[in-house]
Task: structure prediction
Amino acid sequence: MVVYEESKRGRQLFQVVASGDFFRQPLLSFGKRFVAYWVIADPHLKLSSERECKTRDHVYKFSLKIIVFYHVKLPEALVERIDADPLERLRERAEELMLRQVARLDWQTIKEGGEAFQAIVSREDGTGEPGVRSCLDQLRAFAMDYGIGVTSLAIERSLPDDEIATSSRSKKSKPNAASSEPKPRSISRSKNTSRLSRCAG
Result:
């Protein structure tokens, strides 16, 4: 809890009360006015947003989910800038950083959603260039201006239904690399018809 004393001179920080403690008004505080702000002390807070995206050639579409894990590190700094809507600013900055990096990826990397896709969070500016801070480091520096400590940053991508179906068909059509010999096929006759049905063995 962050407690301010309000007077004709304005608002001044009076005390930051630790989680679990109580604010005890001073004995010699007659006529003084105090205003308190409750700040969540949970160390495992989460902020997420989702954006519809297109590849740089505007051919493919996908959804990008950005998840920021954070905690309030400096309660008084957060309250001082409460009018600026710190969480919304954090959300916007996370989106700005990640959308810029995802835009540099080719469609195959996005589609697979594997290590190369996830690496843009921690790699320097998503390019690997020396001397440039990673997206996570940039977000941490930005958040500290609002008293927010960013623990980690994660991204997920969702493909449209037609792309999922295409990927599924592609996987099924790939030959089994474990064996170079063709699998034997069995031919069975249906009881109700004279047609032969061919099934993979």
